[in-house]
């Protein structure tokens, strides 16, 4: 299976017919049908490494202030307890364990409603341990690489550039131009991905552009799991590029 990182952007992309939702649906046609999906979402950012072990994971509406139709969305994909156990075993060195206390948050379902609208493939989420350094997340991704040969799609969902303070301020002012720091960081990350240079991805976070683009690391870290699970022979493509709200990178990366 390939590995995929997708910039999920606003939860409203789940229900709106817009440029991003259309691109998500176009991307779906390029993906093989997986046996199951292991999703690493920016929105399960906690202390610890966990996999969801529910047979019918809940659709979590982990946001506020949106229109009521968004709260009515359900993504009834089955879970996969065997996959949850397998992923936790691969990450046993980090003390990974199973939990039924989480389901599918919007980082996962807001894109899967377009990638797998029939919800016909089992989905397991993997948490992001907020205590770890970026290089450790890259190593966890490497440990998950065997899942690809078992028919599992490793999916990272976040945004390479995710500075909401800037995005909201610029939007309120009517500013739509993408700032140079955001464009530079997005392009440098794309270049590092094209070279499959995971160490460069980690280093770029600790630059002026990286600190502006990812003032908190939660939306960037899913990319490191995808990069870690890649192989030297993987072709790298960017089926979605561009910015929403001026500075929110919507770049997707398909490896393999």
Provide a concise account of the structure shown:
This protein is an alpha/beta fold and 256 residues long. Helices cover 36% and strands 19% of the residues.
Mind sketching the topology for me?
Blueprint lengths: L2 E5 L11 H10 L7 E11 L3 E3 L15 H4 L9 H10 L6 E3 L6 H10 L7 E7 L4 H11 L7 E7 L5 H10 L6 H15 L3 H8 L2 H6 L7 H8 L7 E5 L2 E2 L3 E2 L2 E4 L1
Parallel strand pairs: 1-6, 2-5, 2-6, 3-4
Antiparallel strand pairs: 1-10, 7-10, 8-9
Helix pairs in contact: 5-10, 7-8
Low-confidence stretches: none
Order of helices and strands: EHEEHHEHEHEHHHHHEEEE
Please estimate the helix content.
25-40%
Oligomer: single chain
Number of helical regions? 10
Describe the model.
The chain is an alpha/beta fold and 256 residues long. It contains ten helices and ten strands. The strands form three sheets. It has a six-stranded mixed sheet, with helices on both faces. It has a two-stranded parallel ribbon with strand order 3-4. Strand 8 (243-244) and strand 9 form a beta hairpin.
